[in-house]
Design goal:
The chain is mainly α. The protein has 43 helices and ten strands.
Amino acid sequence: MAPSLTRRLIALGSSDPDRAERFLAAPELEGIDEELLLEGLAAAPDPDGALVSLVRLLEKEPRLRETVEAGLTRSEPMFRLLGASEALGDFLIRHPEHLDVFDVVPSAEPQGADPIALRASLLQSVGADPAAHRPVASRVGADAWEALRIRYRRHLCELAIRDLGAASPTDFLPAAAAELADLAAGALEAGLAVARAEAAPTFGAEAVDAVALAVIGMGKCGARELNYISDVDVIYVVDGEDPDADPSTVISIGTSLATGLARAVSGTAREPGLWQVDANLRPEGKDGPLVRTLESHVAYYERWAQSWEFQALLKARCIAGDPELGSRYEQAVAPFVWSSAGRDGFVDSVQAMRRRVTEHIPPAEADRQIKLGAGGLRDVEFTVQLLQLVHGRADESLRVRDTTSAIAALAAGGYIGRSAAAEFDGSYRRLRLLEHRIQLAQLRRTHLMPVKEDALRALARAVQGIMDTGKSSPEALLDSWHRTKRSVRELHERIFYRPLLNTVANLSPEEARLSPEAAQGRLAALGYSDPQGAMRHIEALTAGVSRRASLQRQLLPVLLDWLAQGVDPDAGLLAFRRVSEALGTTHWYLGMLRDSAAAAERLCHVLANSRLIADLLEVSPESVAWLGHEKDLAPVPLDAQWQEIQSKISRHEDPTARMRLVRLIRRREILRTAIADSAGLLDQDEVGNALADADQAAVLGALRVAEEQAAARGPLLTRVLVVAMGRQGGREIGYGSDADVMYVHRPLPGVDPAEAQRQAKEIVTAMSGLLTQPLRPAVLAERVLQLDADLRPEGKSGPLVRSLDSFAEYYRRWALVWEWQALLRARPMAGDDGLAADFMRLADSVRYPEHLSQADITEIRRIKARVEAERLPRGADPARHLKLGRGGLSDVEWLVQFIQLQHAAQHPELRTTSTLGGLHAAAELGFLDERETALLAETWRLSSRIRSANVVWTGRASDMLPSSRRDLEAVARWCGYSPGQASALEQQYLQLTRRTRHVFEEKFYAVGR
């Protein structure tokens, strides 16, 4: 029993067999053998679309029946085209006079059309002489535009028929892409001929003819690898043949020609436009003049162009207009292109451009992108172009424009392995073919994988047998596409980095081996400032036949990439080598890097961006294990640290050995916090709390050791309390913060006060000394905990430690208003709990005065002005000093403390040692409005973050916003800015502090009131 028509249509790929049956019964198909129709539809990617277009065509031109009735040999090209492109079907319906495109039976191994013949045909469509020096059209306006577009689409149909009928569309792809570029070039040439004719009445025919305009193709058009539908990127170069001509007139004529050309191609007319002519790659982009002289172009590239602009010029080619002027342009810009890889920041600029492209992908499209997403066409093009620019400086064989030729040249030159090149080339062709087939359907500029099942099924049929699958189901298509994307991402690592290893290690002969010079050039282009040193590190890591060397050879292609994305890849690679050597054959280390991409990437990130972390990891390499588990990076609570410290110091008698264990725990916790901070696992408040806990635990340990030392010499005579002050008191410290403290003691009952004072001083002096003893091995980036007691009564001239009674007497009789202010951030840090409670009651009675007199207010303002005038380092820029500069940390903190001194007695909400806590309390009470509070908080947070970033980046404390671009870039990245956004950080900081200073002066000095 023969299968029903419905079942046969479903088997052919019809998504709506009922509708298809109705169209098969249309009067236009009456008398045509149903088997011939079904046989033809079986060849169509979209049988439903092909059937609908066929019926509509037969309605326009009944003679097309002869093609169908002649059998599949004649009709297959027609069914393929109608089933692959509804847009070209619509074109033929609008212009049935071009149905003779189906009269030529295409070859299974087609060739590209002659570019000279295409140019001539398109020029003739507007009535221009192809042999003329500067062709001028005899047709103008809409008439010329329509004729040009119809001729263009006729040629597009001819190409699509050959493309769809090719036995191997991937083999034909370069020829098809080149022909599309030639078609675009011919259309621009014809459009220019129309523009000349249209400009003649305005400027005069002779004046127009005396102006040479060269149209420089960029991107895919310049490289002769254009899509079916794509913007055509161009640059215009103009020149006047008459030396006496007014330059402004020449520019005006050139601009008229360029705009007229674009109108002819894409202006509104009955026949739709072809594509957009995009001149935004010109110097200065949209803000620059549309046309320039060659001299103006060269001047711009010499002085102002960015590295990415030279990468764009890699594909520049004269595609229309004056060939001699275009040739001079190509020769003039070539030296810029092939020297660009040696420019400072070259790789940063190129990578930033790639990131910008990725960042601008709408989230809803990220997983559908064939071109811009991970593993897409841009990854292939970026890799190939970067290799060309790096090695093309010395090897002219790499100076080719199109991607497939460039891959072949790189393989022939030994810059990439032949098998990797073949795989890369194949992946690129498959992705381009997907893009072509998707665009061909509606002739719309898109790079997105369809989501509708019908469209996916038609696409799967269009590329069946090409995307590594013999099936035509949507599932098989998507699976194959995802495999291709993964392959592209892996190939980037293999192609770009693996040959570096081959230069210094004995790898598979299948891989390419770069010369030492070429390998160093590649490392320099990646951003390594000492390529020779980097090569030595690579050699040390990969030499030999051990398992460790083998694993390093597998890992380094990926790790070199991640390190190169850091601010200092040289330091990162050196640190990686040292960490690896320190861990030796530790079984878990390389296994973790191999099995946990997140841990490996995190390690590379911190090593290349932080001297502090790199140095600490070098002396504590076992801490690398934390990178594989986020739970290990969670801050250890203060109580847990204190328990561990007590346990460890109980096992040793020697104070130095005991204190070394305390210092090691503090160093470990600072490292843990810094790594968690770099990974974005902690917010700024959590970082401050974690660092404060590490310092407090160390002070607790030092006090315990110092007291036990004193007890060993005789009975304890007093209880000691360490009071945290300043930022330490507010638990808002950074990586470079010292600890401002005061020391309080209370003699035990019946003890001579003088003896108790003597012992208290011995204890606090010993404690401070124990904390500042250097660890071994010493680390430059490690900061010992300095205890600064300068905020005590009478400052440096007063006794280092006082009894509680002495504090009470001093504050009652002699305390100055600045000492009240200093107490606002007092917090018990270590010592006797009872003494701590009593001291805090005393502090509250001083720091929260019932009334602040006008004299007190004047004195506070005077002191603040004196601090600004006297403590700012000589030569420091006040706009860039994070602490004492205009609108810096000091301004925010003094304003908050000023409000607390005035109002905390009446408003307990203000009684906090935290700057931000006090700020928000002041806002809730109405002393600051929401806008002011948000501004002050943002400024304080950013200034604090920059201050910490200085330490993380260099290992040394600094209160200045860096002026060095490299340092500023490192600080910006730590502060959460994207790579290349250092100037954005600088601009934001300067703007915030300027506005903060205005608020501070208004509220603190009552300026403007």
